[in-house]
Amino acid sequence: MRELPFYHAFAGKVPAIATELAEKLVALAPPGLARVIFANSGSEANDTAIKLVWYYNNALGRPHKKKIIGRLKGFHGLTIGAASLTGLPHNHADFDLPIPGILHVSCPHHYRFAHDGETEEDFATRLAAELEETIQREGPDTVAAFVAEPVMGAGGVIVPPKTYFEKIGKVCEAHDIYMISDEVICGFGRLGRNFGCEVLGFRPHGLSVAKALSSAYLPIAGVMIPEVMYQALLEESRKLGGFHHGFTYSGHPVAAAVAVKTLEIYARDKVFAGAAARIPQFQQHMKKLGEHPLVGEARGLGLMGGLELVADKKTRRAFDPKQTVAARCVRFAEDEGLIVRAVIGDTVTACPPLIIKADEVDELFARLSRALDRTLDWAKREKLLAS
Ligand SMILES: Cc1ncc(COP(=O)(O)O)c(C=O)c1O
What we know:
Blueprint: H1 16-28, E1 33-39, H2 42-59, E2 67-71, H3 80-85, E3 102-105, H4 110-113, H5 120-138, E4 143-148, H6 164-174, E5 178-182, H7 196-200, E6 206-209, E7 221-226, H8 227-240, H9 253-268, H10 271-289, E8 295-301, E9 304-312, E10 317-318, H11 325-335, E11 341-343, E12 347-350, H12 358-381
Parallel strand pairs: 2-3, 2-4, 4-5, 5-6
Antiparallel strand pairs: 1-7, 6-7, 8-9, 9-10, 9-12, 11-12
Bound molecules: pyridoxal-5'-phosphate (PLP).
């Protein structure tokens, strides 16, 4: 703050610390992600990503290739573009969203949406076929991008079925569709590697990052793009006499300095490796809670877990949303001194700090287990369970 509390980046002056941060991000990201444009939140990053895809296709002389595909239950933020891409109906209702040109394909949740007896691989094949059909129906020349979180977060910690991204990636490649990995939750060690897409085995063209970029100490986000896109944007901007996008606080020097320090600490303290070492223990505990009478499915990847609570374990019957069973469990957890979150579909989610220690993982699950037991007692008293 003493060096440079603020200067905007609109007129060709970029704070040196923002450049340093961009270089650090490029070094951390999968190969091919060569340039960074900053924003102040995950939502702004995704809105920026959408605008860049549109601008890029205009630059390439493809003015009709503009539609963007997201997924039901995906969450990408709540500004107009990002909220449109989000596939949760309650984020659309009465906000006049989604905007035209944004489409959603099915949610890759095997437990809820696979057919009887369908393997994960077959389910993934069916979802890739649905994407292909959607693109064909819309016209491949009109579809520009596909955006996905590696593991869906706010939609309920939904881990895609085996081979999903491999198959989706092939469809996108066949139609020259730009793939964006929304790494706002999964980025920076959450799934055991630098970025979630690396764990899920897909090679996106672009990335959105936020949250753990600064460990949330200050607001900062970014969009990472390949060199070929950058060059096209540059060329188009020369024609137009400037690149007319940005926010006053994009690449704010103080937020950038905090992010640079955060990345340094991640490296210095080997935070991602430390988190990766805790994953097997965390997921074993998750799996164990899957045996609890209230839990229909215990799922997760990396240091992300979700427990879907059901009224009938055998038939997978969900509770009536009005009974707010997961919210009740969250309150019992709070009584136990544990913060977890309830998301739609009565799923209780846990996303601990990357620096969590082994004994703290045990403690987390001991408390969560007690909260589940108390929820079960309550649900029995309220006669909410299948007899
Ligand atoms: C995957 C994902 N993308 C984007 C966002 C939006 O980020 P923000 O709330 O910083 O706008 C979120 C927020 O939770 C998110 O989980």
